[in-house]
Amino acid sequence: MIRVARLSVLMSLLSLLSLLSPTAYAVSVAGIDVPPALRMGNQDLHLQGAGLRTKLIFDVYVAALYVGDRPVSAAALMETTNPRVITLRLMRDVDALTLGHALDEGLQANLSPAELESLRPAVERLLAIMADIKLAVKGSQVVLSLGSEGVSVAFDGVERGRVIHPLVARALLKVWLGDHPAQESLKKALLGGL
Fold first, then answer.
1. What CATH number is given for 26-190 in this structure?
2. pTM for this structure?
3. What is the C-alpha to C-alpha distance for residues 91 and 11, in angstroms, rounded to an integer?
4. Taking the C-alpha atoms of 127, 131, 133 and 137 in order, what is their torsion angle to the nearest 10 degrees?
């Protein structure tokens, strides 16, 4: 009789879990829920990994990386032309110049001078889009949609601009996944521990 009751409770729990939306299974990083998937155009992208960016003793943002297929390495993620998305949920107020400077610093650390020079107009466009945001307050979200033609930047659900260049997405991913990432532990987290 007890086994039947336990089985009944278990079946009820399984039924309840099947009714919950997929976001109920989100990963939580520093108290921020990260959805397991998102939609880009007509394609579903799945969470590769998520982690916390810190600077000195401060939490700066929770980053999440979404991909269509789960590549096995940082190099595969940078080389694919399939859509990828990086989301940054801010954990503190950050002015756009600081955010733009950090991106530029990450690009300089991971690109050769020749690569950086060839991408300079695209990088300047990206920095101008970031500067136009002015101030990103705690809780704001920056979404970088990376495709084969370039990068689209959205801020709190509103597209703020596009950078058209076939190599800019790869270059931008190097900020987090390159040989000299913004933070080594964040790189590992974004890769899903690979």
1. 3.50.70.10
2. 0.84
3. 40
4. 100
